[in-house]
Structures are given as C-alpha cells and as structure tokens.
Amino acid sequence: MTENGQRTRSFIRAAITLAIAAAIYEGLARSGYFAPALLPTIPTVAKTLFGMFADGSIVEHAAFTMYRVMFGFGLAVVVGIPLGILMARFSAIENFFLPLVSALMPIPSFALVPLFMLWFGIGNLTTILIVFYAATFPMVFNTWSGVRSVNPLWLRAAGAMGADEHKLFWKVIIPGASPFIITGMRQSFLRAWIAVVGAEMIAASDWGLGWVIFDAKEFLNADIMLASLAVIGAIGYAFERLVFGSIERATVQRWGMVRLAKG
Amino acid sequence: MQDAVTTIAVTGAAARSQTGERLRLIARNIFPFVVVGTIWEIVAWAGIFPHRLFPTLEEVAASFVRLTMAGILPHHAIETVIRLLSGFALAALIGVSIGVLMGRSRRAEDIFLPLVSICAPIPGLAYAPLFLLWFGLGNISAVLLVGFVSAFPIIFNSWTGVKAVKEIWVRSAQSMGADDRRLFSHVILPGALPYILTGLRLGLAQAWRILVAVEMLAAVPWGLGWLIFGAREFLNTDAMLAGIAVIALIGLGLEKFVFQKIEDYTVVRWGMVTA
Fold first, then answer.
1. Using an 8 Å Cβ cutoff, are A196 and A127 in contact?
2. What is the pTM of this model?
3. Which CATH class is domain B57-268?
4. Which chain A residues have a beta carbon less than 8 Å from that of B212?
C-alpha cells in the first residue's frame, strides 16, 4: 500500500517536473529573447510533427532509417555471435581475432564515415556498413565472455550424462550464454541506433531521420528538428523497452537465467 | 651450497622461460596484424581499387611521418584532446553532482529522473544540429555537446552507485556519530565509487565517440575529425588513414593508461573490486 502510494507520488512529481520544464521552455520561446526560428513553441513543434505524420514524410524517413539499422544490426548479429562463440571455444581463433578486435574497438565508427564514403559512395551501403561496424564489437565481446562464463560444472555434468557435442552446444552453452548474448544485442542495437543517425548526417544520404535533422539546420527549421528528435527518441525507446524487454522475458527470464546474470 | 646453486639455476631457467613466454605472447599478438597488413598490401598493389582510394601501407606511414614532422597531426590531435577533456570535465562535474544528488534526495530524484530518462535515449549526435543552431559553429557547440551527451551515463551510474551503498554502512556510521559531511566523504563516496568510475569510463568512451563526429559537423578549424573529413575533399586517403590511426592510438591510450590506472589506484586497492 505504502509502496503504491510512494509510486503515485513519484509519478505525480515526475508529471509536475515535466510540466514545469515545458512551461519554462514555452515561456522562453514566447518571451521573444530568442529568435522564434531557433526556439519554436511547443504547439508549433506538435503541429509540425502532426503535419509530417499526415503527409507521410516522417514515416518514409523513419522507414529508411529502420531499414539501414536493421540491415546493419542483423549483419552484426549474424557475424558477431558465431565469431564470439568460435573465439570462446577455440583458442587459435581467439588468439587471432582478439588483438584485432581490441585494436579496432577504440576507433569510433564515425571516424570511418569519410573513408567509407570514398570507398562506397554516399547512400545505403556506407550507412549500413557503419552501423555494422559499430554494432559488431559489443556483440562479439558479449558473446565471447558469455560462452566463456558458462559454468564448467554444467558442461561436465551434461557430458557425464552423455550429451554429445551438438546437444552440449544447443542445450547448455547457448542457454548458459544467453543473458550475455541478449545484453550484447541490446548494447549493439543502441550503438547501431547512434551510428545510423550520425552516419546519415555526415554521409548526407537523401533519406533518413538523421538527414532530416541535419537538413533542417540549413533552413533554420528548429521545429522540424525537434519533431524528428522526438521520433528518434520514441523509436529508440520503443526498441529498448518493447522489443528487447519482450525478448528477455521470452527467453532468459523464462529459463530462469537472469538471476545468474545479475549476480 | 648445492641448494643455493640449484635455486639460482632454477630461477634462471624460469626467468628465461618467462622472457620466452613474453616473446611468444608478443608474437602472437602481432601475427594477426601482419596477416591483415599483408592482405592490405596485396590488395593495394594488385590495383583492384583506384590507387588514390586504397594507398599502400608505406604511403600511409610516409604521410603519417610527414604530417607529424610538419606538426600538423600533433596540432590536430592536441586540439581534439583538449576538446575531449574540457567536454568530459564538464560532464563529470555536472554528471556526478546530479547523480549523487539524485541518489541522496528523493525530491531531486523525482525532479531529475523524468528529464534525464527522456533526454538520454536520443542518440547524442541527433542533438548536434540543434546545438549548432543555438550556439553557432565551432568550439563552444562541440564542447557543450560532448559534455551534454557524456553526462548521461555518468548521471545514471552515480545515481545507481549512491543508491547501492549498503544501508547498514550508513546506519552504522551514523550510530558511531558521523555527521553528514563525514558520512558523505567516508561512506557514501567510497561506496559509490566503483559505480561512479564505471560511469566516468562510459562517459569518456561516449565523449570520444561523439567528438570525432561533432568535429566533422561543427566545422572547427583544427581537430582529428575535421582532418579526416577535410581529407575526403581532396581524396587524401593516406592522410585520412593516418588520422584514423591517431584516433585509434588515442582511444587505446585512454583505455589502457587512464582507466586501468584509475581503477588500479582506487577501487582495486580498496578491495571493492577484485582485479
């Protein structure tokens, strides 16, 4: 009961905070100290957002961005998980790839955008490859440490009960490493999402949410910028909470693995 | 006497095998780079791609040396590092204060948490055009944006850290008569430090990643991001690759020499985390 009351109070306070922040912003925007083009009022932003939804342009931009993110992220998962597993299982592969991965990881993905633009032109391919580059490393690292951290006792127990390699892999190693793998997917999606927006800005392809924001700067359309920011935030949030949250519930939580991952 | 001789012989052998071990380790770490470098050279020499776009490693090394001798590369690197440090210092100062405040006071938590959780999930670079519009092109925007973006992981981790300090430590310190200041500096801060350091580490990594892109967009006069981006205009792929190499070195240096040292000196020594 008190827990519930506490929560209601927190909720009310949060709402009040947001209302006050919005009021301050609105006051600043209306005060006329700043150019209205730079600091549009909230109703203007809402109207712009609605208009972009109504003519479908924002949906199209979002679709392009999603296509790039999913393609690059999918590629990262397809490459990252097997590579991570191989690195954890075979020390020769680990010896070869670990130095490379550790050397490439500190290079921010954006540093490669100009290079990739030269090599692959501007457009989908460059953006997808940047997303892939950004998303692969967390995937590889988490899978690698996940497989390595599978309790050796389980492996021996399964072996003693007569599990063959195939069974051992699918029934013990993969479920055992799954909390790490899912954390890796989460992190790499986050990276991919950051990378796609940046790559779209720098590589200036014709479509995509990052491009919309950057292009709006040229015309001082701060309302379009803020509206696209809201869309970008909403998509990122939805993926983080809804998609990965439900994947987690359907797999590791059901298998009772999360407690292990946490502590 | 006999024993002493054997001991010396044994330690000598051990030392020798240790250096052998170290050499083998170094060789093992270098081997992948040799393989990749050879493949790169073969592709570059075979002329599959236009030579301007895919220079050989000697050319990259030559332009690295040339740019370093001319002082261009160091100048770019220093500007970038200064920008990184000032943005990060801003983020650390503001992030740790807000995070600790949020952890200690329920009211502050209720005020800041909604704002932070709305602003944090938006990719940092998406704010860049907005900052450029508000604060103009150049240094101020770049530093503010880097600070703003890297503050979020610091806030979240400091907040979690302060909340994770064991209640029993706080109570026992209080019952032993610690006042608020002592409680803060002797119990809460050390207790939360592993988290805060993780936050700082994540924040610096984030700052580093975002800074390179910001330098490309914000049209700053010097900076590694700008060097790479500018080199594209003139198809100076060798200068670009040299710039990327410097970026990689700085990134690696931050990881190895800043964070691991900080961790060794603080949390590992205090026994909060086993090394």
1. yes
2. 0.81
3. mainly alpha
4. 108, 110-111
pLDDT tens across B152-174, in order?
999 999 998 898 888 888 888 88
Q: Indicate if A157 and A27 belong to the same structural domain.
A: no
Hey, are the CB atoms on A104 and B132 less than 8 Å from each other? no
Residues A145 and A131 grouped into a single domain: yes
Summary mean pLDDT of chain A: 83
A3 CB contacts (<8 Å, ≥6 apart)?
A: none
Give residue-wise pLDDT tens across range B222-248.
Answer: 888 888 888 887 878 888 888 888 888
Question: Quick one: average pLDDT of A214-226?
Answer: 82
Say which range, A184-198, A248-262, B175-189, has the weakest mean pLDDT.
A248-262
Q: What distances in angstroms separate CA B155 from CA A60, B103, B107, B167, one per listed residue?
A: 35, 10, 16, 21
d(CA B55, CA B106): 58
Structure tokens at B5: 């001789």
Helix (H, G, I), strand (E, B) or coil at A151: coil
Total tally of structural domains belonging to chain A: 2
**By the 8 A CB rule, do A202 and A131 touch?**
no
The rounded distance, in Å, linking the Cα atoms of B28 and B34 is 10
Q: Which residues of A touch B209 (CB under 8 A)?
A: 108-110, 194
Distance CA A150, CA A171 (A): 12
In chain A, the largest separation of any two C-alpha atoms, in whole Å, equals: 77
CB-CB neighbors (< 8 A) of A213 in chain B: 126, 129-130
What is the pLDDT at residue A179?
Answer: 83
Is A57 found in the same domain as A30?
A: no
> Which of A:6-65 have CB within 8 Å of B?
9-10, 13-15, 17-18, 21, 38
Q: What is the ipTM of this complex?
A: 0.77
Cβ partners under 8 Å of residue A67, min gap 6: A124
A137 and A225 in a single domain? The answer is yes
Residue with tokens 């800041």: B112
Q: Tokens 């939804």 map to which residue?
A: A53
Q: Rounded to the nearest 5°, which phi and psi values hold at A118?
A: -65, -40
